[in-house]
Amino acid sequence: MNYEISEKEFTLNIDLHQRLTLLAKEGDLEVADTKQVRANLEKTLAVLADTPYLKFGLEAVPGFNGLASLMVAVEVVADISPSICLSVETSTRVFGKILTQWGTPAIKEKMLPPLLAGKLIGALALSEESMNVENAPLTAGGAVNGDTAEISGKKQYVINAPVADWFAVAGVAEGKSAVFLVKAGTPGLTVGPRKNTPGFQGAAIADITLENCAIPADQILMIPDGQNMLQTLRMWENQVLIGASLGLMKTAFDGARNHAKTHRSGGKPVIAFQEVGFKLSDMLTLFQTSQLFAFRTAWTTENVPADAESLTLCAKVFCSESAEQVAGEAMRILGGAGYETGNPVERASRCVKFLQIAGTSTEIARVKIGDAALGLRN
Ligand SMILES: Cc1cc2nc3c(=O)[nH]c(=O)nc-3n(C[C@H](O)[C@H](O)[C@H](O)COP(=O)(O)OP(=O)(O)OC[C@H]3O[C@@H](n4cnc5c(N)ncnc54)[C@H](O)[C@@H]3O)c2cc1C
Fold it and tell me: What is the pLDDT along the chain (378 residues), one digit of tens a residue?
């Protein structure tokens, strides 16, 4: 394991920072209008496709270190636009992983090139009302009839749903775990109204309903025996959320440090008050520890898969809880300005709330980490 950021990673980060900052100046990447969300995603994906970024975790890129390189780069994307980060990562690192891990050769050949070229937006439709996030059997599913299958079910909170080209619907086929690939516009698929959320307002989120939605049978990806689909999907989501935590911490820390240096109170810059310096010191410690944890988890996921689940859960809890703490302290350093809507620190403080709920929630993760400590699971 080598935590040194390579020259290639450093150069990629500078390139991403410059190009995405330019995009954010041309038009608000956190805008709520759905048409604009799709346009923003297309523009950002075009930039990302021009770099190795979209390939990380999906295929080897010479000179880069897979998911570990992603963790270095995703911080830049989430710092500039948390919503773009959530949408792109859901499409690339979750929908894309479904294709690389479970796709047939024909599916991979058809769908991976446009995904990696930034011309396909995917969504994961997993959560169902009242399901236990990790363990309950899914109710979405359908009967395979020769060359076609008819899928029915309801899924909630699907990131990208109003703007997606393809949906990966997690469910059950012939009594076994399966992912149904459903193209947007397929008769029987209805995308509900856009959800209003306090954070990630530039990401389009909606429930979907499938009613006897007919898809070709070759769009059903059967999960091999011995693999736990729910657990695997949650781990991929957790990796996305760990990456987003880093970017949100960077936004909060940078905003607080800059404010502390430039804003004067009682005749001096607020950083001159020792308590403010202590806060910044604690925030930086949490941020840098989270970075190390994220890099180690990314490396372990690709190199020692047997240790990955527990470590990912620990990292997800630590990074997401740290992000909330760092954003909260940053708000306080900004004083009254921190409570005004529209500044990046305030935006980050709204987004971080989602990190503990999504993927494997902090509560469930703690139960699982405890079980692992008792030797009841890996
Ligand atoms: C903005 C947003 C975007 C989302 N994007 C997607 C998406 O793209 N695709 C998708 O499929 N889903 C998505 N989700 C759904 C998300 O994964 C679920 O909201 C999340 O899994 C929690 O499920 P729930 O809301 O039913 O809460 P519940 O499962 O009802 O949980 C409620 C509370 O109980 C606790 N709890 C539940 N079970 C246990 C347990 N066994 N042990 C200890 N505590 C427990 C939870 O931690 C939580 O505190 C999104 C949600 C939001 C808010």
Answer: 777 889 999 999 999 999 999 999 999 999 889 999 999 999 999 999 999 999 999 999 999 999 999 999 999 999 999 999 999 999 999 999 999 999 999 999 999 999 999 999 999 999 998 776 566 667 878 778 889 999 999 999 999 999 999 999 999 998 899 999 999 999 999 999 999 999 999 999 999 999 999 999 999 999 999 999 999 999 999 999 999 999 999 999 999 999 999 999 999 999 999 999 999 999 999 999 999 999 999 999 999 999 999 999 999 999 999 999 999 999 999 999 999 888 999 999 999 999 999 999 999 999 999 998 898 776
CA-155 nearest atom, ligand 1: 11
Q: Are 348 and 355 in contact (CB under 8 A)?
A: no
**Whole-angstrom Cα distance, residue 121 to residue 92?**
8
- What's this model's pTM, rounded to 2 decimal places? 0.95
What Cα–Cα distance (Å) separates residue 346 from each residue in 37, 50, 171, 252, 326? Answer: 21, 31, 38, 8, 12
Q: Report which protein residue has its CA nearest ligand 1's atom 51.
A: 157
Q: Which of 131, 154, 155, 157 has the most ligand 1 atoms within 8 A of CB, as the residue to mutate?
A: 157
302-308: which pairs have CB atoms within 8 A and are 24 or more residues apart?
A: 302/66, 302/67, 302/68, 306/378, 307/378, 308/235
Q: CA Rg, the chain, in Å? A: 21
363: which residues sit within 8 A by CB, 6+ positions away?
none
Provide the 10 A C-beta neighbour count for residue 369.
18
Residue nearest to atom 40 of ligand 1 (CA): 364
| Residue of 83, 124, 127 to test ligand 1 pocket, by largest number of atoms within 8 Å of CB | 127
Instruction: Show the CA angle centred on residue 296, arms to residues 294 and 300, nearest 5°.
Output: 120
Residue nearest to atom 4 of ligand 1 (CA): 157
Which amino acid is located at 183 in the chain? K
Ordered structural domains, the chain, with CATH = 7-116 (1.10.540), 122-222 (2.40.110.10), 229-373 (1.20.140.10)
